[in-house]
Amino acid sequence: MRTALLVYSGITVKMMVDSDLGAVASTMFMVQYAPDGVAGTHDHPFEETYLFLEGVAHATFDGERYRLGPGDLAWAGAGCVHGFANAGEGPLRWLETQAPQPPPRHSYRFTRDWEYLREALGS
């Protein structure tokens, strides 16, 4: 099982099902946020589902804020701008699936990049 630690944002990802294991239609992995973990708003050209297992999240989906915890389910359709922050003192953990499988490049489109371009172009 591959694991990635995104040190800059306090996020750990453990891959469970992906192309390395022969999956062709979707991926599944465990996500854990440290107490200060945060992922800025972004969107994808695919759908994601989330099953929250531990901790409490402040989540944003297309500008609407939610507080999610163990047993809660959430879904972000293709193009839905979403982001998460750990709202608790301990770890935040969820199981995530993506379908169709993300492309090898350009699967994340962060809001901050679009804001930078708007400012740079003066619009």
TrEMBL record:
Pfam families per the record?
Cupin_2
Gene3D superfamilies reported in the protein's UniProt record: Jelly Rolls
Query: Mind telling me which InterPro entries this protein's record contains?
Result: Cupin_2, RmlC-like_jellyroll, RmlC_Cupin_sf
Q: Where in this chain does the record put each Cupin type-2 domain?
A: 30-96
> What is the protein name for this chain?
Cupin domain-containing protein
- Per the UniProt entry, what species is this protein from, by scientific name? Streptomyces machairae
Source organism phylogeny: Bacteria, Bacillati, Actinomycetota, Actinomycetes, Kitasatosporales
